[in-house]
Design brief:
transport, MetI-like, 13 helices, UgpAE/MalFG_permease, MetI-like fold, sn-glycerol-3-phosphate transport system permease protein UgpA
């Protein structure tokens, strides 16, 4: 008799499904069903009261892709997402490297750096709005003293910069947590060996630390791009409402504004489908091309 026979075999066919059920249900109800609805709605034209609907095939899509404002919004979204991703990842990596060096009171630093993640997007937006307010803002006043006139209510580029700062600040804590965990997983002996070989701190960072952080960095790149595309609606809505002009209208803000304010439900649904496809494509591209450079 083999010594393996008394181990109970995992042969229950339904158990995996039962264990997965809550997660699958959430995905189905909150993601797949609404996504399906959006796809269906994107082929319809409805009046604002929902009394009459007309099936119009790709008319809504044709309208999007012939609209120069839509391309402007797309371009704004790309600049915004790149800005948020670079700023939040750069700053959080710097903070993580610095926090990793701290020996005394490290917990205090870590806690303080993680706190902003608990702030709601709209609140984060309003915080920065107050600091940069042209008349009462403390940062606007400081800029004024060095001769920079700050007024994001009139200047579109400044408004875009402001929402990028607010959105990046909100995401720094999340990135910081992962970068710090990644740094702490790197064996100290590697750094010591490099230091003995005469590599300075900068050289050590770029030849040892950063390559070993590449799985973490790649993961955060995907997360941050998705965050910038989707989760920043609250910040933009609270700070600029897409203005001045259309300078801070991103794709996700456009979906809301056209759908819930302009009541163009079909057009808004078509935009959300385009947005889903776009983010899906970007994620695939990141996995196909960026992940190859990742060293696990």
């Amino acid at each position: 008799m083999s010594h393996h026979s008394n181990i109970p075999a995992f042969n229950h066919r339904f158990l995996p499904w039962i264990l997965m059920a809550p997660q699958l249900l959430v995905t189905l109800v909150f993601f797949i069903w609404p996504a399906g609805q959006a796809v269906w709605q994107s082929f319809l034209v409805e009046d604002a009261f929902g009394l009459s609907t007309e099936f119009v095939w790709f008319e809504n899509y044709a309208q999007i892709f012939t609209d120069s404002r839509y391309y402007h919004t797309l371009w704004t979204t790309i600049i915004f997402s790149a800005g948020v991703t670079l700023m939040s990842m750069g700053v959080s990596l710097l903070l993580a490297v610095m926090a990793d060096q701290v020996v005394r009171g490290a917990q205090v630093y870590k806690t303080l750096l993680i706190w902003p993640y608990a702030v709601a997007p709209a609140v984060a937006g309003v915080l920065w709005l107050f600091m940069f307010h042209p008349t009462v803002g403390v940062l606007a006043y400081m800029l004024d003293t060095i001769g920079i006139e700050w007024n994001h209510f009139l200047d579109g580029d400044q408004a875009l910069l402001l929402v990028i700062i607010a959105a990046a600040w909100k995401q720094i804590s999340y990135n910081f947590l992962f970068f710090l965990a990644g740094l702490q997983a790197i064996p100290q002996s590697l750094h010591e060996a490099a230091a003995i070989d005469g590599a300075g701190p900068g050289r050590r960072f770029f030849t040892i630390t950063f390559p070993l952080l590449s799985p973490t960095t790649f993961f955060l790149l995907v997360v941050n791009v998705v965050y910038a595309f989707f989760d920043t609606f609250g910040i933009i809505h609270a700070v600029t409402k897409g203005g001045p002009g259309d300078s801070t209208r991103t794709l996700v803000y456009n979906v809301f504004d056209d759908g819930f304010v302009g009541l163009d439900l079909g057009g808004s649904a078509a935009q959300s489908v385009v947005l889903m496809v776009l983010v899906g494509l970007m994620t695939v591209v990141q996995f196909r091309f960026v992940e190859r450079k990742v060293q696990y």
